[in-house]
Each structure stands twice: as structure tokens, then as C-alpha cells.
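Minutes, project check-in
Item: structure for the 194-residue chain
Input as provided by the requester:
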Amino acid sequence: MARLELLSSAELARTLDRLATQVLEMEPDPAALLLLGIPTRGVALAEVLAHRLEALCGRSVDCGSLDPTFHRDDLERVGTRLVQPTAMPVGLEGRHVLLVDDVIFTGRTVRAALEALQAWGRPRRVSLLVMVDRGHRELPIQPDFCGRVVPTRRQDSIQLCLRGIDEEEGVFLLTPGDADPGAWDPSTAASARS
């Protein structure tokens, strides 16, 4: 696999700060927020974002996780992974739930997360934050907050690396070694970084 850096560690930090600011502009009451990360990298991203929000607003923000595996409609295509427990630190009533994921692709994971969320209650509002929107949507689902839009081919993948979990930090595009290099223009990704 060829690997291209889309966001350096410094760029990722700036993007996280921007996203945290945008979240607080939409929801000025941090006590109403509940961040729910979607496994696997969405959980770590939600925790990082919760720390950024706390630094900005001066109070802790509730953070948990929501595993939508059993609500997916495409398990035969994508396969199953080890299911992670859902961690719901507080009730959903009256809350602004912010679903957090590293990448949005077809939209099927988010659809499954919305369905899984119904089993836990009825929040006042649900929003979606992703680090990378790579396109190829199969459902009409769009993020409310997005770090970067990066045009990709279906066979490409995006890797989010976070300090504390990985040896490095940043966002990377992984492309198969046998892919036609003319089919994807790195300058497109560079322009999507701004």
C-alpha cells in the first residue's frame, strides 16, 4: 500500500481545535452535549475532542461510545469485527448527541448508529462529526462537522493516527500498490486540505 500524508500532526491539532469551536458554536451549553464515538477510531477521536472542548469551555463534556455492529445492513459485505461494548455515561433525554467517527464513506455505519441510538432513548438533537469525508455515499447522510473532504477511489482507505494509541499522529491516505496512479491526483487531496 502506498501511504500519503493528508494531515500532519500540527494540521490535525488545528483541525481538532476548529471542530471543537464549531461544535460549541452550534451547542453553547456544554452540559447538554454527549459525545458518542463509533468504534473503532471514532471512540478515540471522541475522547480527544472531549478534552479539546473542556479546554475551550472550562468544564468536562460527557463522552461515551456506541457500537452499531448489530444494526448494520451490510455485514455480509464488510464482515464483522469484535463487538465493543456501548458505554452510555448519561441518559439521552434532553441531550445533544454528537456522533463521532473518523471517516464517513458509504453512510451505512452512521445509519446503523442512528438505529442503535433509538434503543437508548430519544435525544433532543443528533449531529455527526467526522474527521474525513471520503465520498462514495450510498445513503443521504452528511456530516454536520467535517475535518476534511478528501476525494478517494473506492479501493483506497483513510487512516487516522492519534497520539496515545499510535506511534505517530496524522491522517493518511492508503492506496493499493497496484492502483493506477493516474486515477488519483494527489493535488486534489492537497486542495481538499484547506
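Outcome recorded: Residues 186-194 have pLDDT under 50 and may be disordered.
No further action items on this chain.
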